[in-house]
Amino acid sequence: MERLFYVYILARRVFEHRSGAVKGFTAKYRVKMLVWFEAHPSVVEAIALEKRIKRWRRRWKLALIEEMNPEWLDLYAMLNQ
After folding, report:
1. Calpha distance 78→81 (Å, rounded)
2. CA distance 58 to 19
3. In angstroms, rounded to a whole number, what is the distance separating the alpha carbons of residues 12 and 15?
4. Which of 37, 38, 41, 60 is 20 to 30 Å from the Cα of 72, by its Cα?
5. What span, in angstroms and rounded, lies between the C-alpha atoms of 69 and 58?
6. How far is Cα 4 from Cα 43, in angstroms, rounded to an integer?
7. What are the boundaries of each domain within the chain?
8. pLDDT tens, residue by residue, 11-52
9. Over the range 50-63, which residues count as b (16 or more CB within 10 Å of their CB) and which as e?
10. pTM exceeds 0.85 for this model
11. What is the pLDDT at residue 31?
12. Would you say 4 and 38 are in contact if contact means Cβ atoms under 8 Å apart?
């Protein structure tokens, strides 16, 4: 089985954030919807993308989300597919 590494816009550890186990922004504001993610076969690639996205302007992040998920649906179930 191929091992994949994921990059998320809203959360790095989706399960922990969804369950409220992680303190901080996502727990305080009850952010639980995964609206964008991307899988990478290399952890190095995933970390590099995450660092790039963190430097992006908000409107660029919104465009990225809307390109993949124009209806802003919760994509969490897609992680195991």
Report:
1. 5
2. 26
3. 9
4. 41
5. 16
6. 8
7. 5-80
8. 466 667 677 777 777 677 777 788 999 999 999 999 999 999
9. beebeeeeeeeeee
10. no
11. 73
12. no
Q: By CB neighbour count within 10 A (0-12 exposed, 13-18 middle, 19+ buried), where does 35 fall?
A: buried
Tokens of 33: 């919807």
Cα distances (angstroms) measured from residue 42 to each of 6, 38, 51: 9, 12, 15
Range of weakest confidence among 16-20, 63-67, 71-75, 77-81 = 16-20
Residue 15 token pair: 């399960």
- The residue assigned the tokens 């952010």 is 31
Q: How many residues does the chain have?
A: 81
| 31: its two tokens | 């952010």
